[in-house]
Structure formats: structure tokens, C-alpha cells
Amino acid sequence: MAADPDDAEDAPPVNRPEGGAIVGIGSSAGGIDALRRLLPLLPEGPRLSYIVVQHLDPVHHSILPEMLGRTTRLPVFTIEDGMEVAEGAIYVIPPNCVLTIAGRRLRVHSPAPPRNLRAPIDAFLISLAEQHGPHAACVILSGTGTDGTRGLRAIKAHGGLALAQAEAAYDGMMRSALATGLVDFVLPLEQISARLTMHFAHFTGLEPRLGADGLPTDYLSQITTLLRARTGHDFKDYKHKTMVRRVQRRMQKLQVQEVPAFIEQLRRDPRELDALLQELLISVTGFFRDPLAFAVLEREVIVRLFEHKGPEDSLRVWVPGCATGEEAYSIGMLLREHMPKSGRGPKLQIFASDIDQTALATARQGRYPASIADDLSAERLRSHFVHEDGSYRVVGDLREICLFSAHNLLRDAPFSRLDLISCRNLLIYLNADLQNRLIPLFHYALREGGALFLGSSESASRHTRLFTPIDKQARIFRRRAQTERRLPQFPLSTPGPFPTRGAFLPRTGPPDLTIPVLAERLLLEHYAPIHVVIAGDGELVHASARTGRFLELPAGAPVHNILELVRPGLRPDLRAALRRAIDTGLPAAQTNLIIATDTGQQAIDLFVHPLRHGGPDEPLLMVVFRELGSVQPQGSVSAAAGVGDAAAAGIRHLEAELRSTRERLQATMEELESSSEELKSSNEELTSMNEEMQSANEELETSREELQSINEELQTVNSELGMRVDELSRANSDMANLLESTQIATLFLDQNLCVKSFTPAAKEVFHLVESDAGRQISHVRARFVPDRVQEDAEQVLRSLAVVERQVNSTGTDQRFVMRVLPYRTIDNLVDGVVITFTDIARISAAEARISQLAHDLRNRIESLETLLDLVPAGIFITEDRNAEHVQVNRRGARLIGMAENQRGLGPVESPLRLRVDGVEIPPDEHPLRRAARSGRQLLNVEARTLRPDGSDVHVIISATPLFTDAAEARGAIAVVVDISDRKQAEAHRQMLLHELQHRVKNILATVGALAGRMMRNAGSLAEFRAGFLPRLQAMGRMHDLLSQGNWSDMGLRDLLQASLASYAAADGAIILDGPEVLLPPEVAATLGMILHELATNAAKYGALSTPGGRLRIVWSGAPELVLEWRESGVPAAAAAAASRREGFGIGFVRRSVEYELAGRFVQTCDAEGMLCRITFSLAGSVDADAMITTP
Amino acid sequence: MQRNDLTGMRILVVEDNALVADMIADILVMAGAEVVGPTGWVATALELAGDGRLHGALLDVNLHGDPSFPVAAVLRQRGIPFIFLTGYGEPDALPPVFRGVPRLIKPFREDDLAMLISVQFRAEV
User: Fold this and answer.
1) What's the CATH number of domain A743-839, 3.40.50.300, 3.30.450.20, 3.30.457.10, 3.40.50.720?
2) Residues contacting A247, CB < 8 A, separation 6+
3) Per-chain mean pLDDT for chain A
4) ipTM rounded to 2 decimals
5) Among partner residues A1002, A1008, A1187, which is closest to B39 by beta-carbon distance?
6) How many contacts (CB atoms, under 8 Å) link A and B?
């Protein structure tokens, strides 16, 4: 069962197993090594048994037992289901199972659950703790994860011993265990065995002595007093057995045998009190602990909480004694799960309180070990937790609705208007009286119809007027509404002068005005015997009318005790009857009593009836006074017996004597009672004095403890100061070393400019010796100029600004920067100045060098940029292997059609596009990229660049890679040369060549035709030669002439002069007269041959053949050229001969003019000589008719 | 000579050099052909090429600096065979449409001229 162990102690003990204690040893990663070191140290012999739970591979057969068996002399067994644990033996868990223990019998459950849910150490330790309680121990060895932590909690909660391995190879399990704060000892492996032996030896020695009542009550109250003084928590009302057990456990751990010694230790060491408090606050808790009860809670309570609740309402839950928060979060989960999905649910508030601040801190953090997966469904884990670093953290939404606060249920005012109080396994720690007072407190705190959820061994069934059970088994109760809400007296733990139980009696309700009731009342008031209802101790609870005849208020403060109220004569009888009735539980009677009343004597019967209403703790009794007959006046008895005889006289005498005796007895009794009263009151006084002294004593104790704690504080402060001093001296030596190593001359001056201290390097700049400390700085001679230290230091002290100045050493050629700055203490107070001297000779040399280099670099860059601008080639540079970023010079930019406004290099905005043999190549194949990628040179690649505007340029590209120092390609440079001009020139030359060939062939054709014609006409070869060769030569000359003029237009005058130049003639024999006319080369060539023919003719027969001959050539200009060739001075014979010779020469001329020039040729002869007129158009368009000639 | 008999053929001669033109005309006449032209001018040649009774034509490519291609175009349109006379050795010098036209490279032999004419033009007689 899941009940608290302390509860189990009160109940008849569950079959506690016989035999020695059992030690559970849990280990995981690195555990086998630890076991091999631990086991040899375990002592031989009986008493202790060891169960080893090691994480094992579930699939493989384990050789662990054999291995361990070799290390120890104790017998080692592999566990089988049902095996009995013998003393002095070691048992090892088999693979793939969960191990539990029942009595001393081991149970093996296999197969084990999936790996992520497996926690075999926890499983075993929990069963061990439940079965063996204080007779169990656990040892957590090396391992990762959190397995073992829950088991350790259980062991501790049941009073066992918890040990953990120090310096474990894997300390995850150990840390997780330590985080609970419950581990008794963290020990090296070597000491674990000894500690186990010692613990259980001590335990067995102690047990019989401490027995059932081993701890005297006054010791216990001393302890609670100490605890209250130290922690403010009063455990006076805690259940006696619980206290005893926990104190015992603490004593065990400290190995203290005697209670006084323990109390002494508590007094001496307040931390021990804290530890005891922690021990007292241990509680076993878990998520959904006792799942059946939670299921009922969910079904019967949680679901209905949301009825009639709107968004503006709030749903309030109180979890007193929440410990590490599991119970509060469990209820929070239920509430979240049943919260209306519409988002119109009430505001959720869970007040979780505890007095244990450590536990509260854990609860607030909301982080739990992975092993909680055993308690929670996967669904709940997923929706309420976040898995983090091997542990689970409560999600924000759930965390927000839980408010954790430090609150003492017994001392602080309760929460109110609650819908649910979940107070599980808290009441069991409290004694019956306190329990009985807490239930009304819960009643007060709940709203009408609110529910109370108690632990499995707690109950509110004694308070049927306050609570009715909803489910008895699950301990869920509903608040009853009838009774008046009254705040119980507070704080609960300080008892008032009257017990407050009267408050819980049923109220006398409003009179029910039905006739039978009225009749009954009347009957009761007037005809029923006089009666009162009292409690067991005599306190008056209820009284009927007309009690005054028997009851009377005594002098002094009003009392309610019937034994004091009842008339004196009745007291002994009443006391006797009461005693009898309480003892037997049956009605008791005292009959025929004569009592004295105000009016006379009265005989009555006295009955005492136990009322069934109260329980055994709270008996109620009814006292009934039945009057017999009527009141007899004083003395009437003697009158009634007025028979005058001796016997009667004797009787009278005896009666008188009896009366007087009775009166004396009465007086004696009264005296006795009053002295008893006095004794009581002095006893009371003594008690209260004792109380005062006790409290004075406590105060003294408290102040002593305070002194002690102050002393400790002082010691702490002292040791801290010692540490500070150490730190300071270390800092000092650090500083000295720093100053020494920096070589910066430093001087510290105080407010009065006296030298406080200086570094060794300062001796180079001042004439200083060690003994100069304390001298004025003005008395120290400097070794540098200008020496203005005094003035600068004064200025710094005035302005608090830094002064910086360059100074030159007088002895050497060193230069320093002197910096004077204020000396600030840590509190930022100025307490002098610091002067530093930094040697800058080398720095300034380096600066000059750098500046020189920078200048060079600038010049080189300038040159390079100029070069890049001037060089008639595009240059592309990339500095990365993939040629992502390319820089280009101005010419290159132009080649790819970019604007060229930069100087030097600029980034390429659009990629270079290249075509080779008319096909565009991909960018990766560009020579620049290939060179950068491959690290190889590419030379003279011919290509065409494609510009964005569609034009292209014929280029030749060479690319060379650039290399890093490690000879890896880091980029490339490409040179792109525009060869369009060269290509054009080449094409032009080709064209000229064609043209030349054409011309030559044409000429050859002409020559051939000429030769053919002349051969047909010539009579002989000589004649042919005479006619052919000059014409051939003339053609050659004409050709020369046109070639000289580069086959351009030729001036007519030039042509005439050249054609006639070879004919030597007297000055003035040839006259050229006409405007400057330009002839196309073809026309000039034809005309040249015509002029040759005419000149040859003239030289043979005409004007140029005789000395007196004149040739006059006259022409008019464009568009129609008219050229007249007039010969004069030619003898008539010659002229006649010339006209007779009109054969080939003139025929050729005519044919040429008409056919080739599309002109007209007219030839006449007169006495002076020959006249020729050549007319043709220089314009392109000529009359078509004029050109048609007949052959 | 029998083979190169051009009797009855009317052949247009376009050649800007008078000597060459006359020589061609002489050859043709001697072979029995009737010569149309000769002319050295594009405009004239165009007119003559329009004449309905032509069996063939000899075209100098360059006429006073102007190409004779317009004349060739007219001839081709009319389905009259023709031969280019040219000093240019390479066919590249001709426009692509006329690359397949037979050419007689200057200077040429009279026999070659006559034979080429008879081969090229006879079928159309």
C-alpha cells in the first residue's frame, strides 16, 4: 500500500521480515569496475546481504556474477525468481528483468519494459524500502542518468541509509541522487563497506533500548523547543511516534547513543537543527500517488468543479504541505485536462504551500528526473512536460497556475473560498488534537460544497457535522453547509483557556412552530425533570430551565464546570455518579438525596446518563435532577416526629447529634475544598512561574545560540579576510611582475607630489634610488628635457585631465611619451598621480618606415593604374578561384560594352560573353576562369566578345593564373587584345590583291588583244615590233603613272604633260590651255593611250616631227569635256602623208573614244596640220545612243 | 572548227575594253555567230539583254567600275545562258547567286572561248 511509513508504524506492523539488513547496490556505466573494487572489501559473515542491480544489456548473457565471484570470498548468486535472500551473500540481477523483493524473497519480472522506461534500480530500491524500512540501505555507484534517485528517496523515507560513491567514473546518477539532498554520505569506494557495517551494528545495538518509548517526553519537548527557537516551526503537536522515529534516525546517522548527548549536539550546532528539520520534513510524494484515489477525485470532484463557473470566476485549490510539488502539479494536470476547451473556463489557481523552503525551490523549478515517466502516462508527459537534458520540466502553462509559497498550516491564516483542498499524508504527522482542529480549519477555508482530499490513512469522518464523505475509500469529503462558518482560534498550536470544541456543537436552530413541538417544549420546560448536559470533564454544554434550585454560580470568575456550579450538598454524590457513568458507560443513579435549598430541604433522585451523541473521546452526559415530593421548611422534620417517649427523645438526640455531625462534616468538607482550592491556585502559580522560568531559560539559550552564530559569522569573516589578504598579495606580486615586464617607466606620486613608488625602468628617466620614496618630485632630477613634471602633475591634480607630452632623453637619443594621469583608488577617489614614460624611438622609426612604404605603395599603385589605363589591351583580374568577382581596366570595360569612367580597375558589372567560331561558350569555359581553376596558362585564344548592344569585337585572349604563397591558384589575369583593326587591314590587303590580279589579267587580256590585232595588220615581224613595243611601253608608263597616284583621280594637265614629256620640243612648241579637270583612273588610262597614239602620230608625221611644228591642246571643263588637238606648222607633204596614214593609230583612237569613253572623235586636216576634237561626258550618265557602235 | 561552229547563234558581248571586245567579236563572227553589241556600258547592255533573239551572252564582270550583275540578272530571268569574263580568280568575287555561272578567266585563248560558247550555248539552239 502507498501509505506513509509512519502511518504504518501506528497500524499493526505489516509482516516485517526477520533477518539481517539488506543493501541494494545500484550501478550503471562504469559500475562494473566500481563493483570489482567494492566487493572485495565487504566483510565476511552474516547480518548483511547485498543485492547488485547493474544496468545490463538485455540480450546478452551476463558473466557479471562469475566475474564478481572471483573478487570476493562472499558467495555470489545470479538471482532467480523466488530466491530467498540469505545473510552474508551477494545477489546479482540477471539481464532483461525488473527485480523486486517481498519479505526476503526476490521476485524477477521479465521481460523488462522498454529501455526508455526502464529503471531497475528504482524499482528494486522502492520495494526494498517498503519491505525493510530502516533495515535497508542503498549504495549508488557510478552511472549516468537518474536511475536510483527515486529509489533512494524511498529508502530515506522509510528510514534506511543512503550512500553514494564519491569520484565515480560517471557521476550522473550520483549527482541526481545528491540533488535530492537526502544522501547520508558520499564516500570513496574504500569507505563504503565500513560505513555500512558501522551503521547496522549501531542500529542493532540501539534498537532494543529505544524500544516503544525510548525517548522520554521531556527530552522531546526540549528538542521541539530548540527547533522552534532556531527555525520558528513548532513540532510540539507532531505525532509522538513520528518525532521519536525521526529523532532516532538522526541520532543513528550521527552515531550518537544517548539522547542528552544528542540534545547537547543540537545546542552546539545549529546546522544540526536544520538537518533535523529537514529530516522531519521528509515526505514521500510522487505524481498521482495512489492512482485509484486520484481517479475517483477526477471523476467525482474535478469534473464537477467546472460546473457553473464562467470565465470571470476563479477555481481555487489549496495543497498544504506540497513538498516538492508533485501533488500540486498532479491536480494542475487534472484541472488543465478538464478545462473547457472553449477557452471560457474559470481562472485556475493552485495554492501550494509548505514550510520547507528547499522543497519549495525544487517545486518552483518544476524539473523532475526522467524516472517520473513511470508515474505518468505518455500522454500526460507529452502535454504537461518538456523533455530537457534527460529530465522533464513542467510546461509554462501548468507552472503558471501553481503558486508556491512558504506557509505554516499551523501558524498562518488559511487560504479561503477554496473549491478543493488536497492535504494528503500531512495529518498523519500531527497528533490527534491538532488533527481535530485542522479539519474545522479546512472547513472554514472551503467554500460551500468544496471538497477535501486526504491521504489514504487520514479521515474527516469524526467531523460528520462538517464533512460528508464523497468516497470513503479514496478519502474524499464534501463540506457540509449547515453549520455556521467561524474562524477557528489561531494559531492552532497555542491552546486557549477554553478548548474550542464548544464551537462545533449544533446551533439551536430557529424555533420550529408546529404544535407538537410547541407542546413538547412546554412539557420539557415546565413538567420535565430539571437536567443539564455536560461533557466528560464536567463542562456545561446545555441546561434546561429552572436549574437554579440545584446550580449556583460560585464567587469569582464565572465557571461552567458542573462540579463547581452544583449546590455544595450535592457535590460528592454527583461526583460519584459521574465517575460511575463514565467508567461503566451506563446510567448511574443516586436516589433519595436530601439537599438544602434557599427555601428548605428537598429530597431528589440524581441520574447521570451517558449520551450516545459524543464519541469515546468526547463523552457527553446528561444529569437529571428528579424532585421527590415538595420542599420541607426548615425544622419541619422534628415537628413531624413529635411523639413524647424516651425512645423518641433518644432518636431526637441522635438525630441532633447526627445533624451537627453532618454540619461539621459539611464545614470540614468546605474547609477541605477551600484549602484544596488554595493548593490548586498556588500550584497554578508555581506552574506559571515555572513556565516563565522555562521561557527565560529558553531565551537565554536562544541568545547563547545567537552569540554562537555571531561567533561563527566572525570566524567566517575572518577566514574570508585571510583569503582576501592572500589575493591581495598575489595581486601585488602580479602587479610587480607586470610593471617589470612592460618596461614602461612608471612613477606614482601622492597628493603632495611625493614619490610613492616607481618601477625599475623609471631609474632610467630620473636620478632615482630606492631610498627616494617619500621625496618631493621637485627634488628628483630628471634625465630628460623639457622637465615640466612638477607643473604637469599639479595641473593633473587640478583638472583631473590627462597630460601627454613628448620628451627627449638628455643622456641617450631615446624619446619618450610622458603621460601624467590621476591616480584613482578603487573607490574612484583621486589620490595622487601616475606618470608613465613610453619609449617611442622605435615606434617613431617604424612609423617613418611605414609611411615611406605607404608612399611607395601609393606611387606604385598610381603607376600601375596609369599603366592599366594606357595599355591598349583589356585586362581582367580576379582574386578568387571561381572568378566570381572580376576587375577590369578601362580598355577592357570598353571591350565588353561597359561605361568606362573609372581609373585603374573597376568591377565588371555584366559578365563577359565570348563566342568562339560563332558559338557562345559557357562562362565556366572562359580563359580567365579556366586559368584560375586549373592553375595553367592559356595563350592566344581567339574569340569574339558579345556586347550588350549586340555588336562584337574580334579579340585574342591570354590568361595566366595567380598563385598564393602555397603555390595554389588564387585567381588569374587575362589580357584581351582587340584585333579588329588588324583583321580589317588583312581583309583590305586581300581585297587589294584581288584587285591587282584582276587588273593585271585585264591588262594581259588587252595586251593579248592588241597583239592579236597588230599581228593581223603587220606586214612583217619588224613592222609588228615597231608598232607593238612602243604601245606596250606606253601602257606600262600609264600604269606607272596611275600607280604613283595610287589609282586615284588624275589631273588632265598632268596626264598631258606626262604623255608628251618624252617628245623633246622647243619651248613654246606645245601649249596646254584649259581648266583643271580631274579624270577617273579608268578614263585617264584610256585617254593616256589615246594621247600616246596622237603624240606618236605627231612625232612621226605631224607637228612634233618638224622643228617649226606647234601643238596646241585646248580643253573646256565639265560636264562635257571637249579637247582639241591642233597641230600647226606642219609642211603640207607631211600633212598629206599623215592623212594617208590614217590606219591603225587613228583608228584605235577613234574606237577607243567612241567605245570606251562613249565620246565623239573628229579628225580634220588643213594646211597647218591635223586637228582632232575629242568630246565625252565626265558624268556617269551618258547618252545611250552615242555608245552603240558597230564593229 | 567544226565542233565550234556557232552558225546562226546571236550572242551578246559585253566588254568595256575596246580591243578585247573587238577581238571577241572577231572570234564569234569567224565561228559563224551573229554578235549583238559589243558594249562596255551597263545601261546599254541592259537594253540589249532585253532583246528577244539571244542565244547567249558573254559578260565582262567589271564595266567602267560598275559590276555587270544587273545584266546577268535579266539574262537569268529570261533563261538565256551566259558566261562571265573576269580577271578575278576566286569565285568569292561573285555574288552567291552567280557562283555557279561558267567563267572564262582573262586572259583566255581564242579556242577556249569558242569551245566554252559552243558547249554552254549549243543546247539552246
Assistant:
1) 3.30.450.20
2) A215, A220, A223, A259, A262, A276
3) 79
4) 0.82
5) A1187
6) 80
